[in-house]
Amino acid sequence: MSGQAVGSQQSAAAATAGTLDQFVNNATLRPNQPVRLMVDSMRKSDDLLFSNLSQLDQLLTMLNSNDNSVAITQVLWVKLSSVPVDGSWANSVQPLILQTINFLKSFNVAHISQALDLFSRMCKSFVQVLVSRQKPLMGILPLLSSINQLKSEGELLSIMSSLLYLCVMAKCFKPALNLLSEDVVEIRKENNKFDIVDCLLYYYYGGVIYLALKDYKRAHLFFEITISMPASAISRIMVEAYKKYALVSFILDGRVCELPQKISNPFTRSVKSATQAYSEICSCKTTDELEAIRLKYEALLEEDKNMGLVKQCVKSQYKRNIQKLTKTFLTLSLTDITQSVKLPDTDTTEQYLLEMMEEGAICARIDHGEGMVYFLDSGYAGGGGGAPLLQRISNQVERCTSINRKIQSLDDSIKTSTAYVKKISASAEDEGIWKQGNT
Fold first, then answer.
1. pLDDT tens-digit profile of 37-94?
2. Within 10 A of 438 (CB to CB), how many other CB atoms are there?
């Protein structure tokens, strides 16, 4: 190699080192410097980091999570988004996953709170790497810990949809329940914006989680919120949510609930043509019709991954048929119920009865010796049978009171905000000018 070539390489290496040193300098908050300025500087570093991919491990050794959390976020995002999806780089991905997990446990909350857009995209790339390597479980607790540090009560952050996605892929739902049980009253803007897709996915995945736990009422609510999002065009997420919304409606009520009036017109016009099979399923009146439609659209339902939910629809129809019998008869044999409802055998009938008794849908006693079922009044058990109802009422009252406090707090904050006061003042001035012009 000629001396000229060596000199060129040394010059290029020196230039790279100088550029990365400048990056580290920009990543460090100086005395009296607003965090926002440092974050803005980091937002401009994408091209620099991608062009120096081989130097990023060395760069990380020059940074620490207390002073340089935003810079580490950027470096990890570049590394994570550069991982091939084909499963290669196996030896280097595991250390990268561990690096990211350690960072999620130790970042500077004050700095990251002002760079949530950068942090969110890093987390999304992290989630994609975990899912592509079939390791979604590894990211759930670190991501949950990050969310708990960054969010306030009632806030929705974009990374919350990423956490729910991990929970769905890992089939590990419990860590998400505390987040999902909290009413969202505010969407946190990230760099003065928020992607509606993250909001849609949060409620969609939330509905899927409640479905897996067979909490159909909560699942129905989450899918309803998903399809109620303001939209100028139909979204695939909303269409998939509607399919599940329709099936859950059938499980709960034997029909599809009317769409809320707040749903956008483009969605209402388009959804029926895109979900014809589901309309047919939910218009069925008997289990025989349901089974026939299920077989007719079997391939489509498997593709949509809704076959299990349709089977629950069939099951719910059997239960409704049994419940109708309780309104007419006080005593029936297991054989009579089996024949009337068209179940395959008495063992299956007994299983349905036991499930319905456990769910509180019916109150009954099964006499195995005689093969008879005695339908009882709901107050038969006596001795505090109303206690669970009173507890539910108390919980609902407490929940409504809490929501009212949150709404009142939001109302007060809006009324005292500078933007609101200016708007009201301008409206009052315009009204005064209009009145003067008409007198």
1. 999 989 999 999 999 888 899 899 999 999 899 999 999 999 999 988 666 666 678 9
2. 6
195-200 LR contacts (CB < 8 Å, sep 24+): 195/158, 196/229, 196/231, 197/237, 198/120, 198/158, 198/160, 198/161, 199/156, 199/161, 199/229, 200/226, 200/229, 200/235, 200/237, 200/238, 200/241
pTM of the model: 0.81
> What tokens does 349 get?
């009938």
Q: Is the dihedral of CA 326, 330, 335, 336 positive or negative?
A: negative
Percent of the chain with pLDDT over 90: 48
Average pLDDT, the chain: 85
DSSP string, 365-419: EEETTTTEEEE--TTTT-SSTTHHHHHHHHHHHHHHHHHHHHHHHHHHHHHTSHH
Number of other residues whose CB lies within 10 A of the CB of residue 212: 14
**What is the reported pLDDT for 436?**
56
- The rounded distance, in Å, linking the Cα atoms of 155 and 145 is 15
Closest by CA to 246, choosing from 284, 196, 286, is 284
* Rounded mean pLDDT, 265-277: 77
Q: Which two tokens stand for residue 281?
A: 């399923």
Write out the two tokens for 41: 């500087």
Burial class (CB in 10 A: 0-12, 13-18, 19+), 75: buried
Q: Are 36 and 42 in contact, with CB atoms under 8 Å apart? A: no
Looking at residue 193, what DSSP letter applies?
B
How many C-beta atoms surround the C-beta of residue 335 within 10 A? 13
Between CA 334 and CA 347 the distance in angstroms is: 9
Residue that is written with structure tokens 């979900």 in the block: 275
Our measurement of the distance from residue 75's CA atom to the centroid of its chain's CA atoms, rounded to an integer in Å, reads 27
pLDDT band at 12 (very low <50, low <70, confident <90, very high): very low
For the stretch 371-386, what's the b/e string if a residue is b when 16 or more beta carbons lie within 10 angstroms of its beta carbon? eebebeeeeeeeeeee
Q: What residues contact 77, with CB distance under 8 A and at least 6 apart?
A: 118, 121, 122, 125
State yes or no: pLDDT of 1 exceeds 60.
Answer: no
